[in-house]
Write a structure and sequence with these properties.
Distance between the termini: 46 Å
Order of helices and strands: EHEEHHEEEEHEHEEEEEH
CATH topology of the largest domain: tt1808, chain A
Structural class: alpha+beta
Shape: globular
Number of strands: 13
CATH class of the largest domain: Alpha Beta
Strand order of the largest sheet: 4-7-8-9-10-11
Strand content: 25-35%
Largest sheet: 6 strands, mixed
CATH architecture of the largest domain: Alpha-Beta Complex
Number of domains: 2
């Protein structure tokens, strides 16, 4: 059985849609260097995080462990399943969950991270990035960071139309989701 796959915003290769259950069965544990997300019957395939992006993740973790959320049992994770609607499953590059969300996650209840980040690569399409931004906020995410390693900047969104552009010494804030997550943009790319 073929499945509809969109690669980096391209039109799907076949017209056959799949269910979320089929997606989870076929793509949830694939380890082939790609990240798969489910968007209304279509499988979206992008590159998984690479080593440069993993370094950004490590820097973020060093700042996260100094937050109140971490001290209260919060979780900093990468590419973890998160249903943003009944027909959309995303795997944000980075996400932070509250400690009280973890018990519900252990029981199998979907939780929406209050803070997510996408590390933007040269192959990411602007329309796809923008659509996912709106999707995240509609699902209940409070803060979205778009991290641009090539231009060494971070767009910090607190709503789809509210953005702070951070570069150099400008502080990227996790507020209101994580008020004490404060990182000078340049440190993400050092």
């Amino acid at each position: 059985m073929s499945a509809t796959t969109a690669i980096a915003g391209q039109k799907p290769k076949t017209a056959k849609m799949i269910t979320k259950e089929q997606f989870l069965r076929r793509y949830s544990n694939r380890e082939d260097g790609y990240k798969y997300e489910f968007n209304q019957g279509i499988i979206e395939k992008t590159n998984a995080m690479n080593q440069k992006q993993a370094v950004i993740q490590a820097v973020m973790l060093r700042f996260f462990i100094n937050t109140k959320i971490f001290k209260e049992g919060g979780l900093f994770t990468a590419e973890t399943d998160m249903d943003t609607s009944a027909t959309q499953l995303r795997r944000p590059d980075l996400a932070i969950y509250l400690g009280q969300q973890l018990a519900k996650m252990k029981e199998g209840e979907n939780q929406v991270a209050p803070w997510v980040a996408e590390i933007i690569s040269p192959t990411d399409r602007a329309d796809d990035i923008n659509n996912k931004l709106y999707e995240y906020f509609k699902a209940g995410v409070k803060v979205v960071w778009h991290i641009y390693p090539q231009s060494k900047k971070v767009d910090v969104f607190t709503a789809p139309e509210e953005v702070t552009i951070c570069s150099g010494k400008t502080i990227c804030s996790g507020a209101p989701a994580i008020p004490d997550l404060l990182i000078p943009a340049e440190e993400l790319f050092a």
